[in-house]
Amino acid sequence: MSVSTTGFSPRRAVCVLILLSGAACSDPKSGRGFTLPEGEAERGKAVFSELACSSCHSVSGHEDLRPEGFEPEMTVALGGETPRIATYGELVTSVINPSHRLARRYSMEAVSEDGVSKMRNYNDVMTVDQLIDLVAFLQAQYELKDPDRTYYYPYY
Ligand code: HEC
After folding, report:
1. Which mutation among 94, 126, 137 tests ligand 1's pocket best, with the greatest number of atoms within 8 A of CB?
2. Domains of the chain, residue spans
3. Which residue, by CA, sits nearest to atom 40 of ligand 1?
4. What CA–CA distance (Å, rounded) separates 77 from 60?
5. Does any ligand 1 atom lie closer than 6 A to the CB of residue 79?
6. Which CATH superfamily is domain 36-142 in?
7. What pLDDT shows up at residue 133?
8. pLDDT digits (tens, 9 = 90+) for 48-96
């Protein structure tokens, strides 16, 4: 019996459809369908200060979070120009599960120990409202900027 590899196979067609719809094939742990209610950036800034996030983070344009004489534990910069703004899901993950994906701009030793983020764990002290407002504040600190691209003219 010969098996056709190029012909139409109903079973393959069904699987492609399932993959395209994403529904039945998605990982049960995926973030699909995750949405936060609208947060308030101003309140988020107050939370940032209350929870002492500024002891490890500077936020560009909010130098008042680190007044004169303030002694930071470390400085991981948040906000500023970025080629891609983090989604709510990514920002929430950075706050409640920081070791999931460590900030890429720093050396591993600077920001983590044995793969675990040096960021403090707030999960048993932060309210959901605080988290929502924090994310609204953080997201507003990033500015979308196209990465510098060098344009090459066609060579004739
Ligand atoms: C003890 C120091 C420390 C404190 C306090 C701290 N963080 Fe962090 N944070 C880090 C370090 C180190 C990283 C980089 C490693 C990582 O990605 O987890 C980080 C990463 C982040 C990132 C991801 C940055 C990126 O570029 O990917 C966000 C967002 C963030 N922190 C938010 C917060 C917020 C909000 C608070 C307060 C509720 C806070 N952090 C408190 C140390 C801290």
Report:
1. 94
2. 36-142
3. 53
4. 7
5. no
6. Cytochrome c-like domain (1.10.760.10)
7. 98
8. 999 999 999 999 999 999 989 999 999 999 999 999 889 999 999 999 9
